[in-house]
Amino acid sequence: MAIEVVPLPLPPSADASKFKTFGREVKGVNPGALTPEQFKEIEKLLYEHSALLFRNAELTPEQQYALTKAFDPTSESYGHGNNKTGETKKSILHPDLKTIPRVPQVQLIGNGTVYNHEGLAEAKLKHPSHTTFHKTRVSAEDEANGITRFYRWHIDAALYDLSPPRVTTLYGINVPSGAHQVCRYDDGTGDELEVPLGTTAFVSGRTMFEILPRELKSLAVRAKVRYAPHPYVWMAPARAKSTGLGIETEGLEMPKEELPAWEEGKVKTFPILWKNPLNGELHFQVHPCGVSELLIDPLPAGADREGALYPDGAHITDLGQVRDLLYKMQRPAIAPSLIYPHDWHEKDLVLFHNRGVLHSVVGAFKPDQVRAFHQCNLAASDDPVGPSAEDVQKWAWLELDVVISGKEEWMDVDVDVFE
Ligand SMILES: [Fe+2]
């Protein structure tokens, strides 16, 4: 049977014109037992569409690990490392992760108590919710009426020492049913999004870049972010914005001298834009909570400086300034119309391009709503690749706007830039 792909069902809130290439359901193939040829096809589909759904998948932890590893055959350890030492117990991720004993790269995540599960006699799981992470929280009354928030927009990555996984696989085993919830942004915009209970929300990093105005594209293509050492420990005492897209600047981060031992050489600095290995497109891939500094290259020689941000480059270390700039660039892409909230069914397997999307846990469960998922991603064998010299040439310039507004005779100079 040939592999068949169909678009993912979009909710009424989504702007379909922004999801033309995003997300596909894959049919006619067993994701747990792909032939090498089938895998090649799936790999191409993933980089093209950013998220793939297989329904009614039968997948052991071993098969899930093998599938995840196929995208990066020399990768070995879980994306946050396999060994949970005492030091990382301070990390905000610690309570969310339970390892499958036979296959430590696969994590059991979810909610409620799970018994006799893949060698785990009893696992107490807690679906992370905004109530433990955001500076403000939805009132108990609103919560009872189904109001909720995005927990944390992120990339699955340690962001220290290890390289960001290429792919994450998420397999829904127990999926409690329940009423839809309303995810409220609470940022003064009035934005809200109706979501299935316990959805995973995805936004495209490609769209995040594409919808930026020209001056922010120019900034993004020239900029790198530097993450804090042990970023999840560093951010643990701090509190997040109400959209889950970064941290409020209140000076609560753990001082660097109190962090577990760290080495300069293991601190991660990544370009803001990551290049898609299949088609060269640029994805805006920043985990805003963990960033501590921004490094901006100057405009290329000869570029028009008028209207350009940081034309001479900059090294921004003021946390508030760093976060304001990132928020300005990332917030547009989490608009309700740009979100794909997956409506989980049991035996759904979702693969997502972790270097091409941002995602967030959403919503809240009651303790008796038992949810069990297997999640796998592997620290990659390489770091992501940033924009090429041609990309910088293409996007760092602002003068195209002048061309558009005033001098029509120049219009044919650079038409391909309008794509
Ligand atoms: Fe995640």
3D architecture notes:
The protein has 419 residues and is of the alpha+beta class. The protein starts with a strand and ends in a 14-residue tail after the last helix. It has a single domain, classed as 4-Layer Sandwich (Double-stranded beta-helix), CATH 3.60.130. The protein is built from nine helices and 21 strands. It binds fe (ii) ion. Its cofactor is Fe(2+). One of its GO terms (molecular function) is metal ion binding. InterPro entries: TauD-like_sf (IPR042098), TauD/TfdA-like (IPR003819), TfdA_dioxygenase (IPR051178). It comes from Steccherinum ochraceum.
List keywords for this structure.
single chain, 419 residues, alpha+beta, Double-stranded beta-helix, nine-stranded mixed β-sheet, four-stranded antiparallel β-sheet, 9 helices, 21 strands, 18% helix, 24% strand, disordered C terminus, binds fe (ii) ion, oxidoreductase, dioxygenase, metal-binding, dioxygenase activity
Chart the SSEs and their pairings:
Blueprint: E1 4-7, E2 24-27, H1 36-49, E3 51-54, H2 61-70, E4 98-100, E5 103-117, E6 120-125, H3 140-144, E7 147-148, E8 167-174, E9 181-184, E10 192-195, E11 200-204, H4 205-210, H5 214-222, E12 223-227, H6 231-234, E13 269-271, E14 273-275, E15 282-284, E16 291-296, E17 314-316, H7 319-330, E18 340-342, E19 349-353, E20 357-361, E21 371-377, H8 389-396, H9 399-405
Parallel strand pairs: 2-3, 7-9
Antiparallel strand pairs: 1-2, 3-19, 4-5, 5-6, 5-21, 8-19, 8-21, 9-10, 11-18, 11-20, 12-13, 12-16, 14-15, 16-17
